[in-house]
Amino acid sequence: MPKMNAFQPGTQDSGLRTRKLSLSVQYAVKPEEAPTRARFRRWVAAALRKDAEITLRLVGEEEGRTLNRDYRGKDYATNVLTFVYDDDFPGGNLPLTGDIVICAPVVAREAAQQGKSVEAHYAHLTVHGVLHLQGYDHEADEDARIMETLETQIVTKLGYADPYRCDA
Predict the structure, then answer these.
(1) How many helices (H) and strands (E) does the chain have?
(2) Is residue 133 helix, strand or coil?
(3) Taking the model in full, what pTM does it have?
(4) What does the alpha-carbon distance between residue 5 and residue 11 come to, in Å, rounded to a whole number?
(5) Distance CA 40, CA 116 (A)
(6) For residue 103, what is the domain's CATH number?
(7) Structure letter (DSSP) for residue 11
(8) 17 with 99: CB under 8 angstroms?
(9) What DSSP string runs through 17-59?
(10) Residues of the domain holding 74
(11) Are 103 and 64 in contact (CB under 8 A)?
């Protein structure tokens, strides 16, 4: 598990080198409020700490539910799923490789329930997925605190409100 103080959000590696990012954005569905590829790229880059090859796929309820059921055993569509590939090769010089799947109807529903813009929620879930690709999780309380702190730092640096703060 990466440590919080070892991570500096942004696109520079210790200020010396720009990270390489190969990002493919797929729109299985494209609702009116779907972010552009450029927005997704900005959000991914903000959370990335190493070179990466990522596919980000925006899906509907049916595909989201199928993926969540088949890979996590949970028979409902969830907001974001992360699939990590090639994360344990010796030497650590290969780029991070994985897929992030975001379910558009769930994002829209949650944004309305939480009183936030759909764009802000997409930004948060994209950052959340990129952190998962890098080994962060939220299963244990301490890990959740670390991951949520990073998410808040990155999302607020991007100009959005703290995703965990409820003003309602």
Answers:
(1) 5, 6
(2) helix
(3) 0.86
(4) 16
(5) 18
(6) 3.40.390.30
(7) S
(8) no
(9) EEPPEEEEEEESS--TTPPPHHHHHHHHHHH--S-EEEEEEEE
(10) 17-157
(11) yes
